Amino acid sequence: MGHVNLLENNKRDNKYDVEHVEIRYQREEQEEKEGEGEQSNSLYFNDRNEIYRLIKERMKRCLVVIVFASYFHSIVVEWATLLTGVSWYHYTQVSSIQYSWKLRDQTI
Predict the structure, then answer these.
(1) Spatial separation of the C-alpha atoms in residues 23 and 59, rounded to whole Å
(2) For residue range 35-51, what is the model confidence (pLDDT) as tens digits?
(3) CA separation for the pair 51, 47 (Å, rounded)
(4) Span 70-82, pLDDT tens digits
(5) Residue 97 is inside which H or E element, if any?
(6) Distance CA 50, CA 26 (A)
(7) What's the gap between Cα 49 and its chain centre?
(8) Distance of CA 33 to the CA centre of its chain
(9) What is the Cα–Cα distance from 83 to 68, expressed in whole angstroms?
């Protein structure tokens, strides 16, 4: 029953589903043979490889979000500069915020 739920929840990546079900099935068979509480090294390495693969996939998603956010930020800064006539690029940099405010105060 658990195998069917895994396949229903992860329809987008069929190869992953099949591998995951096979790993789960092997683990259940191994536990029946050896008794509860003991796991073979092959199952440990399969689980570890699965965890590494999931971490790698999550890191790729985070990288895409970071790249998109930086691109979106640059577009917003450009539009703000065009609409207001003020260079907003300097205000968005943390290291130059104090310098920008000093320049602003001197011009007033």
Answers:
(1) 23
(2) 555 455 555 667 778 88
(3) 6
(4) 888 888 888 887 8
(5) helix 97-107
(6) 14
(7) 17
(8) 38
(9) 22
Is the CB of residue 41 less than 8 Å from the CB of residue 47? no
Q: How would DSSP label each residue in 45-87? A: HHHHHHHHHHHHHHHHHHHHHHHHHHHHHHHHHHHHHHHHSS-
The sign of the torsion formed by the CA atoms of 52, 58, 61, 66 equals negative
Place of tokens 């930086």: 70
Structure tokens at 49: 């490889």
Query: Which tokens is 28 given?
Result: 């259940």
With tokens 């099935």, the residue in question is 25
User: For residues 89 and 95, what is the distance between their CA atoms, to the nearest angstrom?
Assistant: 12
CA angle, 77 then 82 then 85, to 5° = 105
